[in-house]
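Before the break, one more example. Copy the sequence into your notebook; we will annotate it together after we see the structure.
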Amino acid sequence: MDTQTILQRELEGSIAFFLDFTNRDPHSPGFGLTVDSTKQPQIASIAATGFALTAWVIASERGLLPHQEALNLTRGTLQTLLQRASHHRGFFAHFLHMENAQRWGKCEYSTIDTALCLNGVITAAAYFQDAQIRELAQALLERVDWHFIVFERERQALFRMAYNPDRDGDYIDDQPGFVSQWDMAAEQKMMYLQAATRLAPDLARRLYQGFRRDKGHWDGHEIIITPGGTLFVYQFSEAWLDTGRYLDPNGIDWFNNTRLAALANRAFCIAHADQFKTYHAESWGLSAGDSPWGYEVAGSTPARHEPQHSGTVSIYSALSCLPFIPEETLAMLSYLFHQQPQTWGNYGFFDAYNLSVTPPWYSQALYGIDKGCSLLMIENYLSKLVWNIYTNSRPIQDALHILQFTERTSTQ
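Here is what the structure looks like once it is written out:
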């Protein structure tokens, strides 16, 4: 089977995953919510729901879901998010009960997971051009109290990562309240775009300038790095924003930064192939996801800290490199499909695999955010659909203007 056919089957399988693991019971208070993981299908992820909202756009455009059905599913999801899903000042609880949309346990109210959800909201509103969807989306975007998570440190404006009001809640060691801060280059860039139109322009620009741009090097190239070198942090914002069209106000080329990070991640795996059987030129990708030991965060150099890795290849994160390094990614896709058939299931590729353990381990699980990221990147590689809809939307165009991003010229 050729790579284009495999890609098409992976895309269709991803849509089938979202259809089968999203609450589509019209009588359920949790209508429209999508699972965090097939391991615990009773738990919804607010971020996975954002990817699902974007999946309905892709499915509608490709005729994999009737347009009216996709529109109704989107309307109902936005109603759930606005009227029933647990939130604090517009920031959603990270995990929700699939059936009633209420906060799962004492999980945190997460900024990044809310932002991932809102990226789906923005995309859906721009695509469907439906009055009710636009109204619901606007209400959700306006409800977020961005000022609540802004603070100053050493004359830098920063965002908090999360909030948890419970003394024994997730990520709380002692006192309840704010959790950590976004002070490094990571997956949060979408937050600056979403907040830009809700804050004073000067504050919006100071926030964007507030996080560190740590530098690392690979093969003579400079890369703005993340703390642990995990691949997904270069991909989540870029799954929606067409960074290939813009330079940031400092002249940073985020598209090329992601391209270099992907190449460095692959090279790191090749360099360690003698230690880990899973790694080679057609099997690479160190990121966060399933592993023989449960959920694991792996990474490669260059990184701010010594990266952790154990021989587990994150399939979704490698697939998500497709728009950035297509030749290398397509070679891996073909290898996996033809030489590692246990990585493939009813919904396309599973999350990860590891041949460096005994017996060899193949994930049987799927994560909503993982399947979502690779789905969006495959679509962007094939058509730029998501990039065009999201990047051209009014909220994002206004934000890019406020933050002083500049559109590339043809010679850049």
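The longest strand covers residues 156-164. Residues 76 and 260 are 40 Å apart (CA to CA). Try to locate both features in your own notes.
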